[in-house]
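Re: the 199-residue chain
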Amino acid sequence: MRRTRLVVGLGNPGLFYRGTRHNLGFVVVEAWARRHRAGLRQRAYQGRFGRLSMAGHDLALLLPQTFMNMSGDSVRLAVDGLGLGAEEVLVVLDDLDLPPGSLRLRAGGSSGGHNGLESILEALQTEQVPRLRVGIGHPTDQMVVEWVLGYPSLAERRALDLAVPQAVAVLDTLVGKGFDAAQQLAASAGAGLEGSQGR
């Protein structure tokens, strides 16, 4: 597959949504940018935009500011503006179907019901968009919308606080060593969290 050239973190803009489960994509990409002293200060492609250089590679970073359900509008503008193919994009997002803090890196597939990813797949007209999913667990006693827009419990927060640097390490590995090595690291990073919902 092609080398990653654009990393997109998914979330909702504004203080109201900061710290919610659904903004985990923002958190991971912001942490990765800080690690490499890269800014996300530019306003471009309907999002916060920046550049990151590592291991001899230059990458673009994007946090769409369109709200989750319209993330594809921002990503489509960036892909067109940067002259990229869908396989050169990596989307970082939260995942209901994974235990809190576990990681999964995939080269493509369906949206799994994630509205932000669904918007991107529709905008790019393909399911072959790589994605790094970070688990947030599934609700047992409330609506999904309330869950994803809610704040993690203390136990979940501990798992997510561990997962963010692990996700950053996966991104570093993806750029430095390639997709297969990054996929293996993602799988091992979440291995100890399977079955833990951390409510």
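The mean pLDDT is 93.
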